[in-house]
């Protein structure tokens, strides 16, 4: 019997959850259905295990850490939702809940002990599921992936699954960052809800047999099939040449300011983890300065935050900054709440054009009710120190964040590949670069069209992940002398958080011809958190995020600055 590794882990996790659920029943952690909750939690734990480098003690600790958020979400929040009453946070109520908390922690510890062992035992008898390996050769085929984002990481993981122990193939991933950044949660870092390390996973830890090279791709010689890699960020060391038989371009995108030099000089990018950290620390710095500023006009400009762009990134950033800035007001008593402003500038007549018009209106109304100001049908024309100029007036501000434009890395134009008007590499439906044997491109830097519908594939994380898995299969097929297959994927929908406990969601219902169901408010917010935390790479990251969100229910947001802002932190 042979099943996929994921299905095997889920099955073993569910069985382990049932076996470990006795502490839940003994502690009355749930009014009923403790075993069912244990099975569901175990299945999720099993799915998240993955083939990571974890000791038995580490697995037990990871499982026990899962107990705290599980207690808060299932026992406390679940019981409150069923009863219709808000959770009680008093000392007596917490004392009453202590046995349930201990039950969840003990359950998690048992789960962390049983699930990996059962999964390892099952792997011996059930086996795995992967493509047949290509025939061994004297010189191994070299696959080089440039870029450590969703597309590049997913390709490497797919190749590892398909070619787990094949010595005839070598896999190398080149990236200037040593971690995968989970960009859908970037606004949570800028808004102080999550720590930076919680949304980034080390590439060296996640990849088992892939060689990781930290550096910047400096050039490609397609004739000699050589990739030149320079030290990351101009660090010490010399350039290195890496030969390849298959080259995968997954370099992502960069901010595009459309030639507006002043805006680029004064605006904060919002693409990387460092960008989010800089924005958060800059907001705190503005409040520190405003708290000692006597001039109301100057003070208002300090606590006015402008976000350019009304797509997902801009809306989520504006909502996060608005919640963060109003949430820390208690620590700055000399800053009047009426002076704090978050302004979103968008060139179209409605925000979130990726979603339906009704959800776009809902998002605008909810954010406006929370204090966000909107300048629609308005373009950002210029920026200077302390002021931004719009097509309809100007705004005095010390903070401008740019999310209004992005494009493929200009590095792609340096070695003669065909690109479209955006600068993306032109590929066919299999992600192969036409006329360039063994050269592939995917993700934000590729102009890929769906092999079934012919529609352009959007530059989103869910598409990049599927493209990476599909490209891994195509490279594996190519190594075995089989033709690659066209890429096809139907979007699962879209989610956007617009503020605390408020979000919008459009979910595509399977087997209904693309019919979508729309959600908004608290339910959509819970869906957003649940879906994205499940997509975080690595069990440890999932647990850390859940614990952080649990603490957020009880404690105010931190206002400690983590970087030095005495020099200009903007791009």
Describe the secondary structure blueprint for this structure.
Elements: H1 5-20, H2 22-26, H3 34-49, H4 56-65, H5 67-83, H6 91-126, E1 141-146, H7 150-162, E2 169-175, E3 179-181, H8 186-190, E4 200-202, H9 203-206, E5 211-214, E6 216-221, E7 226-230, E8 240-243, E9 246-249, E10 253-255, H10 261-266, H11 273-291, H12 296-302, E11 304-308, H13 312-327, E12 341-345, H14 357-369, E13 372-375, E14 380-384, E15 387-390, E16 393-396, E17 399-402, E18 406-408, E19 425-426, E20 439-441, E21 446-447, H15 461-479, E22 493-499, E23 502-508, E24 516-521, H16 522-535, H17 539-552
Parallel strand pairs: 1-2, 1-9, 2-5, 9-20, 11-12, 11-17, 12-13, 19-21
Antiparallel strand pairs: 3-4, 6-7, 7-8, 10-18, 14-15, 15-16, 22-23, 23-24
Helix pairs in contact: 1-3, 1-6, 3-6, 4-6, 5-6, 5-17, 7-15, 11-12
What's a concise summary of this model?
With 571 residues, the protein is α/β, with parallel strands linked by helices.
Structural commentary:
By secondary structure, this protein is α/β, with parallel strands linked by helices. Helices cover 40% and strands 19% of the residues. Strands 5-2-1-9-20 form a 5-stranded parallel beta sheet, covered by helices on one side. Strand 11 (304-308), helix 13 (312-327) and strand 12 form a beta-alpha-beta unit. Helix 1 (5-20) packs antiparallel against helix 3 (34-49) and helix 3 (34-49) packs across helix 6 (91-126). The radius of gyration is 25 Å and the shape is globular. Residues 128-136 and 567-571 have low confidence and may be disordered.
């Amino acid at each position: 019997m042979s099943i996929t590794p994921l299905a095997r882990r889920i099955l073993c996790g569910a069985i382990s959850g049932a076996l470990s659920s006795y502490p839940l029943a003994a502690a009355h952690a749930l009014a009923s259905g403790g075993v069912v909750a244990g099975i569901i939690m175990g299945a999720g734990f099993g799915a998240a295990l993955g083939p990571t480098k974890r000791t038995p003690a580490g697995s037990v600790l990871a499982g026990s850490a899962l107990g705290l958020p599980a207690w808060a979400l299932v026992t406390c929040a679940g019981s409150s939702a069923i009863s219709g009453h808000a959770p009680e946070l008093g000392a007596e109520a917490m004392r009453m809940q202590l046995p349930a908390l201990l039950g969840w922690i003990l359950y998690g510890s048992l789960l962390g002990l049983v699930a990996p062992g059962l999964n390892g035992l099952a792997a011996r008898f059930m086996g795995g599921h992967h493509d047949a390996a290509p025939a061994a050769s004297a010189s191994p085929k070299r696959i080089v992936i440039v870029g450590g984002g969703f597309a590049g990481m997913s390709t490497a993981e797919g190749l590892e699954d398909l070619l787990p122990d094949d010595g005839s193939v070598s896999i190398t991933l080149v990236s200037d960052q040593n971690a995968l950044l989970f960009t859908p949660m970037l606004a949570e870092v800028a808004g102080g809800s999550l720590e930076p390390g919680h949304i980034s996973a080390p590439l060296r830890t996640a990849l088992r047999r892939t060689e990781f090279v930290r550096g910047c791709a400096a050039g490609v010689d397609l004739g000699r099939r050589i990739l030149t890699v320079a030290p990351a960020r101009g660090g010490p060391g010399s350039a290195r040449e890496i030969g390849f038989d298959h080259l995968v371009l997954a370099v992502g995108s960069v901010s595009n300011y459309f030639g507006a030099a002043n805006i680029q000089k004064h605006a904060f990018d919002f693409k990387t983890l460092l960008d989010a950290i800089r924005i958060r620390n800059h907001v705190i710095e503005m409040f520190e300065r405003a708290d000692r500023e006597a001039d109301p006009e100057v003070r208002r400009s300090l606590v006015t935050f402008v976000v350019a762009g009304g797509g997902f990134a801009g809306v989520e950033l504006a909502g996060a900054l608005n919640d963060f800035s109003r949430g820390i007001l208690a620590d700055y008593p000399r800053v009047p709440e009426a002076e704090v402003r978050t302004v979103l500038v968008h060139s179209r007549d409605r925000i979130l054009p990726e979603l339906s018009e009704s959800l776009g209106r809902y998002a605008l109304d909810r954010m406006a009710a929370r204090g966000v100001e909107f300048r629609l049908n308005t373009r950002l024309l210029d920026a200077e120190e302390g002021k931004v100029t719009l097509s309809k007036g100007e705004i005095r501000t010390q903070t401008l964040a740019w999310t209004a434009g992005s494009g493929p890395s200009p590095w792609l134009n340096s070695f003669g590949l065909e690109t479209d008007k955006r600068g993306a590499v032109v590929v066919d439906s299999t992600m192969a670069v036409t006329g360039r044997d063994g050269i592939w491109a995917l993700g934000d830097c590729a102009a890929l069209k769906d092999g079934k519908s012919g529609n352009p594939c959007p530059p989103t994380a869910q598409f990049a992940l599927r493209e990476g898995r599909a490209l891994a299969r195509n490279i594996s097929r190519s190594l075995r002398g089989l033709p690659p297959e066209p890429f096809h994927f139907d979007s699962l929908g879209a989610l956007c958080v617009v503020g605390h406990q408020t979000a919008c969601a459009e979910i595509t219902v399977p087997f209904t011809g693309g019919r979508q169901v729309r959600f908004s408010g608290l339910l959509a917010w819970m869906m957003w958190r649940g879906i994205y935390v499940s997509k975080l790479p690595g069990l440890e990251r999932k647990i850390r995020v859940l614990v952080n969100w649990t603490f957020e229910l009880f404690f105010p947001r931190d206002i400690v600055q983590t970087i030095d802002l005495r020099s200009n932190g903007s791009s």
